[in-house]
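Lab meeting, action items carried over

1. Structure of the two-component assembly. Owner: GW. Status: complete.
Input record:
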Amino acid sequence: DSGVTQTPKHLITATGQRVTLRCSPRSGDLSVYWYQQSLDQGLQFLIQYYNGEERAKGNILERFSAQQFPDLHSELNLSSLELGDSALYFCASSASGTGYNSPLHFGNGTRLTVT
Amino acid sequence: QKEVEQDPGPLSVPEGAIVSLNCTYSNSAFQYFMWYRQYSRKGPELLMYTYSSGNKEDGRFTAQVDKSSKYISLFIRDSQPSDSATYLCAMSPGGYNKLIFGAGTRLAVHP
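Predicted assembly:
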């Protein structure tokens, strides 16, 4: 068990809808990362937060947004959902914000299905 | 062309075999190289981590990096059915931030 908790495990919704994915990092970790894993694109970095502030941005669509709260949990908001957004969404956490000597620990993901 | 190329397999081997998993990459700025293992319905877990070129050994696992060829490998000796998983290579120019992952190779070790 990595110590990273993601909820819900599964989410089924319709096109055009909005959903929120939640992540609780490992105890003591200040950084939260969001990744998307799809069959055709593999595992892709979306965004990183460190201690409440956005630290790095990857291939995140404008329809997606994230935030990290004072208790360090994070939420990924996906809006105007399209069929192509169906994927596994992983949250990972690490102790530092710089990424050096600070391995990522992944949760077990949220499987999103858009119908 | 993707920055990191990895054959998705599947790769099927008998128990006890030596397994070789490989990735090639195009970005010469990559300095940090990792291998993650992902079991079905689970998140990736870090197996091996290497900085720059060279070899690193941990039990039955050996990671190799050849920066001149932009080629990394993971060898699994005496493979076990419990090694059946998807193996993802990952790399970055700096630490664990903004990791670029390969597509993953699905490995099946049969008794």
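2. GW to write a short summary for the group page. Key points so far: Chain A touches chain B at residues 2, 4, 42-45, 48, 55-56, 58, 90, 92, 94, 98-109 (CB under 8 Å). Chain A is about 0% helix and 50% strand.
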